[in-house]
Amino acid sequence: MPADPRLDPEALAALQGEFRGELVDPAHPRYDAARAVWNARIDRRPALVARCTGVADVVAAVRFARARGLLLAVRGGGHDVAGNAVCEGGLVLDMSGMKGVRVDPARRTVHAQAGLTWNELDRETQVFGLATTGGQCSKTGVVGVGLGGGVGWLMRQHGLTVDNILAVDLVTADGRCLTASADQHPELYWGLRGGGGNFGVVTGMELRLHPVERMVVGVFMHPAERFAEALRAFQASAAAEPDEMCSVLLCAEMPAMPTVPPEMRGVLGVIIVASYHGPLAAAEQAFAPLRRFGPPTAEMVREVPYTTLQTMFDGGPAASYGNGQCMRSEFFADLSDAAIAVVEDQLRRAPSPMCGFELLHLGGAVARVPEDATAFPRRDAPWFGLFQSTWKDLGDSDRHLRWTVDAWQALRPFALGGTYANYVDDEPQERIAEAFGPAKYGRLVDLKRAWDPDNFFRMNKNIRP
Predict the structure, then answer these.
(1) FRET pair for 424, CA 20 to 30 Å: which of 186, 289, 293, 327?
(2) How far, in Å, CA of 110 to CA of 208, rounded?
(3) Residues 205/180, Cβ–Cβ less than 8 Å
(4) How, if at all, do strands 210-211 and 130-131 pair?
């Protein structure tokens, strides 16, 4: 990469003079590690990575990039499927070193800086027997998940992550620091809860906590041939779920666990995972319909610490760094027999067992929040579904990308419309407007014009002013 005249030695020296963190350029020995993100098919080469230690570093880097017309990407956990945490030829604002966390057990709140991942936050809050709704993978960033919505194991009882955000600390495009909350900049507060990183660099947020210590987890496995029956049974069971229960159906590669028959390991199968926040006896009763169906070829029901449940999906290929990833998603009402047949047909065409389908049950507290309370869309949708492909050989990307898009297009006629912005991949701009719907998107555009009229913050699920 030729040297960028906007990053001449004098300019870099001026930045370093007011920057306490580390500046990583293409000649730095840790450059390749600094630019790597979760989705390995993203291979971008920024001109500079600024690894921040605090808010003052963020302000300095934002002002530097703005003054020199540099494209800016903001990195927290680095798990965005579209790879927005890294940019080509610009400046990456790396927040991963900002790990400050402060739990207030009396108020049941936590303040988390922008570099924290969910496993790091959970470790601190669980000391006090407290938690809030976090991502399904605990390696994801707290702020990134929260700004887009935040679906997780506690959502049916305590709402999405956005429903538990009390305040957001922000650095604006002109380098100002402010806090958005119900009392301060309330319209901006509305947009930050679902509208993503469009309005500034979030340096931290305050979240509401709930008493949570132990959970009951149930895992029920079936062969792929039972997919259609299993999905129907799953939907019927979910209709009667109490708020304390959350469940998801996966058609995915079966794990090499002792309880899984050898002939099922490493091939596509059906996995229903359910969690319950409450006593084991109550959980057994809630899980009963899932245990009766089939019966499962393999199952597990046990009481576990909340942190164990949170890390359950961390070790799989779909959550790990180093693999290519692609996903397409929609909100759904109950999937009809015709829709189930479409999914089943597409799964037969999957290029590998690491490609699959996920159907997550929403409802409960998620649906009880008024639609216009946050920017998160489709509170009325009972289901969120997605196709995801994962692959190790990046030379095989085209086949996996094509399958994911084709499978999604085949199922779209059965969808409600709109999607969860955090899961929007490298898709056309109109997909962002579609994700939020006309009313919310219009309101978000007005906010963007007010806070970032030049679209300086555009490496995100971009709301164009």
Answers:
(1) 186
(2) 7
(3) no
(4) antiparallel
